[in-house]
Specification:
Elements: H1 2-24, H2 50-59, H3 64-67, H4 80-92, H5 98-107, H6 109-115, H7 123-134, H8 138-151, E1 159-168, E2 176-178, H9 181-190, H10 195-208, E3 213-215, E4 222-225, E5 236-247, E6 250-257, H11 266-276, E7 283-286, H12 293-301, E8 305-308, H13 319-322, E9 332-334, E10 339-341, E11 347-357, E12 363-370, H14 380-383, E13 399-402, H15 404-417, H16 420-443, H17 454-479, H18 486-491
Parallel strand pairs: 1-7, 7-8
Antiparallel strand pairs: 1-5, 2-3, 4-5, 5-6, 9-10, 10-11, 11-12, 12-13
Helix pairs in contact: 2-4, 2-17, 4-7, 4-17, 5-6, 5-7, 8-17, 9-10
Length: 493
């Protein structure tokens, strides 16, 4: 009985060994196995598929800068042009992780079509290509994409819509460093045995630069307040300020900046674009987050028209704001005497000027006005507001700080944005600029960067932008809307 069991066990082992050997041989010439899949994909992939357009688009690009990042190119490996096609199509196909792209190269027909008979690259090769080869020349390739769209007549080169969003970085949100100079100085001056610690703090402050914080796991990321605040507690997260410049629904230019606000990003964004593109936009359309005297002056100096909504534009239309006697806009201004008259007919005279220098070095001058007849005013409590004054209410006087140049620039911009053309441009900005972020975050599900470091993050953004542009071009070709610039460009000269 024992011998029979042993023989039966041995027989089972032999059968299992045979089955194991059979299942490992996928290329055996038997009925249940196939030697190879058909390599002619012309009959499998439709003629109007986006992968064909993407392949042709990349073929038109000059990839000399990309090839220069390689020291040796092997014959049997995937070429840099093919790698670029695969990566762009993966981002168009909402596949961002390198392991997911590797799997798609082995199973998806469209990816195999782009490989052109070459073996599928592994995830490490894909990750290295993205960070070591594509990242150094990402800006140049974005420039080529924009120029190609301009030559095809897909972008107007006239109306430019800009907007920004905060994209979460691939960093630990609980490990961050804040810049505190006062603490550092005290430690250096008072505690000599903390010298090593002081050196460490010096390095952190140097890394912060003009920022107030950075993430330890991604030092290029800055802690910012995000709109996506699930806990409703104003939690800070490491992020990048992604800026998009859109024309005719295409992402013409982009930048990733460490600034938590949009105001200081406009000038570096336009300067970077001016250095790379052969044409200059004359009409710059942006929301209230970009309004400043420095930005107005920059656009006027370069002969560009600013269509920027004032920061108080929406609130100024409310009845409460218009009836508030404390607001300068509700006072009477006499230009000849350079003075204001309050609701009680009392005059606010000039008492001096003060200059304010921004972080970028721009000097803004403000004129100071003061009323000397506020002692027995019956509406003093409504005119002079504030609960944290160190001066008693009886000793307070109404004062105004007016940046005359800024107010004139704001008035000019307000006249432009309230015109028929300005209304159409502002509507179009919300459709195009904000729509590009909506497509990125919600349609394509990209809400957090996968790479770390400013260069790698920028490369990811370029991949997303170029794939977005190719997808948009494919959609316009299919719908027969090529060469159209939406309603605004067609109606407004």
């Amino acid at each position: 009985m024992q011998i029979h069991t042993c023989k039966g066990f041995c027989g089972i082992m032999v059968v299992m060994k045979k089955l194991h050997t059979t299942t490992q041989n996928y290329t055996s010439n038997e009925k249940c196995f196939q030697l190879q899949i058909p390599m002619n994909f012309e009959f499998i992939i439709p003629d109007n598929d986006s992968v064909r357009l993407l392949s042709q688009f990349v073929e038109e690009m000059d990839l000399t800068c990309l090839y220069d990042t390689y020291s040796i190119l092997k014959e049997n490996q995937v070429t840099p042009r093919q790698m670029l096609k695969i990566l762009l199509y993966a981002y168009l196909d909402t596949k961002y992780a390198s392991r997911v792209i590797e799997t798609a190269c082995k199973r998806d027909v469209n990816y195999i079509y782009l490989l052109e008979g070459k073996p599928a690259p592994d995830h490490a090769t894909i990750a290295r290509f993205r960070s070591l080869h594509f990242a150094p020349c990402a800006k140049e390739l974005l420039t080529q994409c924009t120029q190609l769209l301009y030559e095809l007549g897909e972008i107007s080169g006239k109306k430019f819509f800009i907007d920004g969003t905060k994209m979460e970085a691939n960093a630990n949100k609980y490990t961050f460093v804040w810049k505190r100079k006062s603490t550092l100085q005290k430690q250096i001056e008072q505690l000599s045995h903390f010298l090593e610690k002081a050196k460490e703090y010096n390095q952190k402050i140097y890394r912060c630069g003009k920022r107030n914080s950075y993430a330890k796991t991604d030092p290029d990321a800055t802690f910012m307040r995000m709109k996506e605040d699930a806990m409703k507690n104003g939690q800070l997260k490491p992020a990048y300020n992604l800026q998009h410049g859109v024309d005719a629904d295409y992402v013409v230019w982009l930048q990733t900046l460490p600034n938590p606000t949009d105001t200081p990003t406009l000038i570096p964004f336009l300067e970077d674009m001016r250095e790379q593109l052969p044409f200059t936009y004359q009409n710059i359309v942006a929301d209230a987050g970009y309004e400043s005297e420095e930005n107005y002056s920059y656009l006027k100096t370069h002969g560009q028209l600013a269509y920027i909504k004032a920061a108080n534009y929406e609130i100024s239309k409310t009845r409460k704001y218009q009836n508030d006697i404390a607001n300068r806009e509700n006072m009477v201004y006499e230009k000849e005497k350079d003075c204001y008259y309050c609701s009680q007919g009392k005059v606010l005279k000039v008492i001096g000027t003060k200059a304010r220098t921004t972080a970028t070095g721009y000097v803004s001058e403000k004129t100071l006005y003061r009323c000397e007849a506020c002692t027995n005013c019956p509406v003093k409590s409504s005119c002079i507001k504030g609960n944290h004054w160190k001066i008693p209410e009886k000793e307070r006087y109404k004062t105004l700080d007016v940046a005359r140049k800024f107010e004139e620039q704001r008035a000019e911009s307000l006249e432009r944005i309230t015109s028929k053309q300005g209304i159409l441009l502002r509507i179009n900005r919300s459709i195009q600029a904000e729509g590009s972020f909506a497509a990125l975050k919600w349609d394509r599900g990209f809400k957090r960067f996968l790479c770390r470091g400013e260069s790698n993050v920028y490369a990811e953004c370029v991949l997303l932008a170029v794939s977005h542009n190719i997808g948009k071009l494919h959609s316009k070709i299919q719908s027969g809307k090529t060469g159209s610039y939406l309603h605004c460009e067609n109606k407004v000269a």
